[in-house]
Write a structure and sequence with these properties.
heterodimer, A: 157 residues, alpha+beta, Aldehyde Oxidoreductase, domain 3, 4-stranded mixed β-sheet, 4-stranded antiparallel β-sheet, 30% helix, elongated, B: 79 residues, Ubiquitin-like (UB roll), 5-stranded mixed β-sheet, 5 strands, globular
Chain lengths: 157, 79
């Protein structure tokens, strides 16, 4: 059976106000990809990002707070994913992202993409993750010792 | 009316997150750049601040119409 294009299988996007299990999300997405007996895609790339326990200056983090722009955040991720899917010929994509208060060790982001080859899958997945970090309206605040500090910019690649 | 929204550090700096601004017929055509001085956040938009109109990134000189939502976004840190 031929693979549907990304247009036929749009991005699955979930913003989670509470803790989520990225492996359950992946399993849900993969079940969806093969629904109705469709052949599983030949290549998938997955990235799971978790909150680290220390700031860039080495101070222990109590929690990370994630603010977003309801409506625009979702619309912007849809636009980013559509453009990257077209550019790399992706078959499908899934993004899960936490909002609100996230504790060290908890998953903050899951990015998964499917393609017919490893190159487009890995390049498309990496590009989607980097675009999320720089082009989707999320703002992080690190809480240390009861003091919150907005993080301006991203950690090193 | 134009709805102005601020997020994260800009919201806390201003002390508010959403405000409606009236457009007067004799005022110059509003743009994000010429609304900014009315927000109490300084004279000019800092270079790291981005603008969205109706929930899509936009230019600072995008003409605004009544009913538009303009948002000023500090540097993004997602993922």
């Amino acid at each position: 059976m031929a693979h549907p294009s990304a247009e036929e299988r749009p991005l699955q996007l979930r913003l989670h106000p509470a803790r989520f299990d990225p492996l359950s999300s992946l399993a849900d997405w993969q079940r969806n990809l093969t629904a109705g007996g469709a052949e599983a895609p030949a290549a998938e790339a997955h990235f799971i990002g978790r909150v680290r326990g220390r700031t860039a200056h080495g101070a222990p983090i109590e929690a990370l707070e994630l603010e977003h722009y309801p409506g625009m955040t979702e619309a912007q991720i849809e636009r980013i994913a559509a453009a990257i899917s077209r550019r790399h010929g992706l078959l499908a994509a899934r993004v899960d992202h936490r909002v609100g208060r996230v504790l060290p060790g908890e998953t903050i982001v899951l990015v998964a993409v499917a393609a017919d080859r490893r190159g487009p899958a890995q390049r498309g997945g990496q590009e989607l993750l980097e675009a999320l970090k720089h082009e989707a309206p999320f703002w992080k605040r690190e809480w240390c010792g009861g003091v919150g500090t907005w993080v301006e910019g991203n950690t090193a690649f | 009316m134009i709805t102005v929204r601020l997020f994260a550090s800009l919201r806390e700096q201003a002390g508010w997150g959403e405000r409606s601004l009236a457009i007067t017929p004799d005022s110059p055509s509003p743009t994000p750049a010429n609304l900014w001085p009315q927000l109490g956040l300084g004279a000019a938009i800092p270079p790291q601040v981005r603008v969205a109109v109706n929930q899509a990134f936009s230019a600072l000189d995008q003409p605004l119409q009544s009913g538009d939502e303009v948002a000023f976004l500090p540097p993004i840190s997602g993922g």
